[in-house]
């Protein structure tokens, strides 16, 4: 059985950004709702604010290090595939060199790469863990700094690529706002409303509510409009089945009253939530508004009779009935004639379709074959696998047999040409899968069916090739997401599944090992040889043969050289005893160890 988990992060008092007023309250309210009304267990809901209590004996002060440590601890010891996770963040977000970052409490706009949390790394870690995750980002952007670039664009692309649903508080060219009157950011206030009033059965319902309610709150409080963005995944996204639908009867009632009112969401409650202003209930269509003349719109047989109504039939109505019969007869005759005409046209087209294959066989004796492209269906793409009307196909004789490798190369070139026609990229797994889905629309018996099937096989192999290339670069999340796009009915599907299982294991090892390396880097203090020595001891814990081992070894060798350089600097000042003590910190087995021992021998002579 899948478990429910939540991580809610809210930061008010930034060290290098303008303080926020409601981010901490936002995170606390989301966490409290999930525990009190969402069925989430308190011990499975992590809250990280400036004043939040410890979680599993770890500090929850929202620094980058604490966020990563708690995240990795949960991933390693608690989370299982298909567990549900709500990840909520309220605070500053920045875009730097085209990449989005969430800023922890010590986030510095002048050192974004060093102090920020890369959204790509976060989302890839979630995908590797195979969680059913929902991300909710109430991101503020700093005014008047280079960090106020359009944040969110990369996050949207990542969500589509990795198939992780996400809701952003505003468009990339907008700003998120908060209100002291509400005590929340406008996005979080609308989100809490939606959850309390039953718009939480799935992501689609939540998106409908937020897209209407968030701009309403901005308008009500005279703030610039912000419109949330929701990225859906291919599979139906249920937010959480455990959340009770307390307001469902009211929602259904509103949907029945105004089903066609597209200007007002049927999900909006008619009574205001506590401390949150709600717009008036949408106006009912005039056809549904009770009035004294409403009975006139009902069928005559359902209209209540009155004492003043005569019992005899109305002569005007009888006259209109007599005129109706000739019109009905003429209409029936016209309909029959129209149906006959349609049948004749269909039979003629079928006859023509039977003649065309025969004519193409007669033309096979010529060097050039003329093919008539079928009329494109309105439901299919007019570009898909379209052939030129005249195609030169040299005759293949017994004396000129095509080798399999050449034939395969020709088919691959043809598949690449088809991708180009559809304006799709051969280096994007999602584009290749889109091409496969489009080619599947060609049914058996159609002229291009065989070629479409060949293209599907080639595109499937290309998807797996892309996935393998990403895995070689240690981009395991991207590799797994690409391999998952290989269709089940293709020959390479079993290989793709085997690779996915292997990459998931390697990804966990890589994340664990890179976490060790990051922890080692965090120990280093410039000019302190002992800190480099401690970092080396931590990096040595990365097991040989596992992903990340080569990175650890390069770091260890580099740090050993740093220790030796510090020792040489002290020896140059004729501080030989200090230089010897420093060089002795170079561990055995590192790149600088032998040079350090030789230096120690020389400095011992000089110190005598």
How many helix segments? 18
Mean pLDDT: 75
Number of domains: 3
Radius of gyration: 34 Å
Structural class: alpha/beta
Give the topology string: H per helix, E per strand: EHEHEEHEHEHEEEHHEHHEEHHHHHHHHH
Poorly predicted parts: 241-322, 351-404
The portion of residues forming beta strands comes to 5-15%
Shape: globular
**CATH fold-level name of the largest domain:** Rossmann fold
Largest sheet: 8 strands, mixed
- Helix fraction? 40-55%
**CATH architecture designation of the largest domain:** 3-Layer(aba) Sandwich
Any overview of this molecule?
There is one protein chain. The chain is of the alpha/beta class and 608 residues long. It has 3 domains: 4-257, 3-Layer(aba) Sandwich (Rossmann fold); 405-507, no CATH class; 538-607. It has helices at residues 23-36, 64-77, 112-115, 119-128, 153-162, 186-196, 203-220, 248-257, 315-362, 404-421, 429-439, 449-472, 476-483, 493-523, 529-539, 549-572, 576-583, 593-607; strands at residues 4-10, 45-48, 84-96, 99-102, 117-118, 132-140, 166-168, 178-179, 184-185, 229-231, 368-370, 390-392. Strands 1, 2, 3, 4, 5, 6, 7 and 10 form an 8-stranded mixed β-sheet that branches. It has a two-stranded antiparallel ribbon with strand order 8-9. Helix 1 links the parallel strand 1 and strand 2. Helix 4 packs across helix 13 and helix 13 (476-483) packs antiparallel against helix 14. The longest helix has 48 residues, at 315-362. The protein is globular and about 125 Å long. The chain starts with a strand and ends with a helix.
